[in-house]
Amino acid sequence: MANVSTLRFGAQTDEVTSLLRIVNMVRSGDAVTRPEIGRVTGLGRGVVAQRVDRAVEMGFLEDAEYAPSSGGRAPRTLRFRAERGRIVVCALGGQHIHVGVTDLDGTILDEAHRAWNIASGPEETLDTATAMVDDLLASGDGTPAWAIVVGLPGPVDFETGRPVAPPIMPGWNGFDVRGAFEQRYGAPVWVDNDVNLLAAGERARHRDEGIDLIYCKVGTGIGAGLVSHGRLHRGANGAAGDMGHVRVPGAEQVCRCGKIGCLEAVAGGWALVRDAHEAIERGATGVLADSAASGTDLTLESITIAATRGDALATSLVQTSARQVGEAIAALVNMFNPSLIVIGGAVASTGELFLAEVRHRVYELSLPLATRDLVIRTSESDAREPVRGGVDLAQEQLFEVSLPRWFADGRPTVAAVHGLFD
């Protein structure tokens, strides 16, 4: 039997490799009986039995119900013990905090949501977020966290877990978000851009396809998550997909990042609110104008609701945003050639009003080959999307990336996951 150091340091024998593979096969449902494992791996019955017994001994697998018989004795199925650990997802948005706790299979056990301004700064924000996490964990059965995923609404260096010059997050530049969570919970932490969590959630729906997709979020800000052959594409430093700060030709609006003419400054939700006020001051009429005249604050939500009800000004603002976003996506399509584009976010919640204009611009401006099999649709508009995406990212990092480093310990540790051994 392989010793602990062999398992930890990655000098994997055939025995270790097959043991890890069997655990992952059962976890993913690719093979759940001993005969199935033998057929998929090519291992003999005795070897399969030995590996399975070892995985059961270590606490990863256990026997479950009998599978249907195919003519002989019904085989016993195996199950991955997903109840042994918890995955915590903390999705921080520009104006909210969404926290969820799941088992290792991703079944959501509890969640909480509250309004919050990310500009409040890292200390106050993380104090609030961790208090929400503490409440959820305290209401559970004491099962420890095996992984924590944090989503941030700005550029993130994935390797260090630190935000890098995030335009809407004053005081967050270089803050050690990963370290703050790891010190508090003693579990490995991964920090990523919030749109990458949404892209990961969409990827999970196409897990067996090795899909190429773009998830474009058009809310207060604008960003994109890229999946290439089933893998999140972050680029060299984690900045891939930051389309909100691509320059729009001829645009002169000042962006929140300090630059001139960014896509976000033309088509983002905060830009739509700005343009609505300017149009009303110039004499625009309708539902939005009446609302402003009554003293009600104009918000992105009020604009999208008015657009779905046919208000001329709101409709014009949404369609203008869609045209600019569609042109930016068209450039990505020509370079990236995805098979699926998913549009999410508050502005995109106007549905076909926004989507039709995006489709028109993408098909008009992209190469025919790049759009031949392209599907463009809106997101599922599920409030749990960030949690599901965070779970998918955690499962990838735990069981596909770092498993050989911590498997011998029976559960992931910060040191093992990051390869920090004595």
Automatic annotation (TrEMBL):
Family: Belongs to the ROK (NagC/XylR) family.
Domain of life per record: Bacteria
InterPro entries: ATPase_NBD (IPR043129), ROK (IPR000600), ROK_cs (IPR049874), WH-like_DNA-bd_sf (IPR036388), WH_DNA-bd_sf (IPR036390)
Name by which UniProt lists this protein: Sugar kinase
Keywords noted in UniProt: Kinase, Transferase
Database matches in Gene3D superfamilies: 3.30.420.40, Winged helix-like DNA-binding domain superfamily/Winged helix DNA-binding domain
One Pfam family matching this protein: ROK
GO molecular function per UniProt: kinase activity
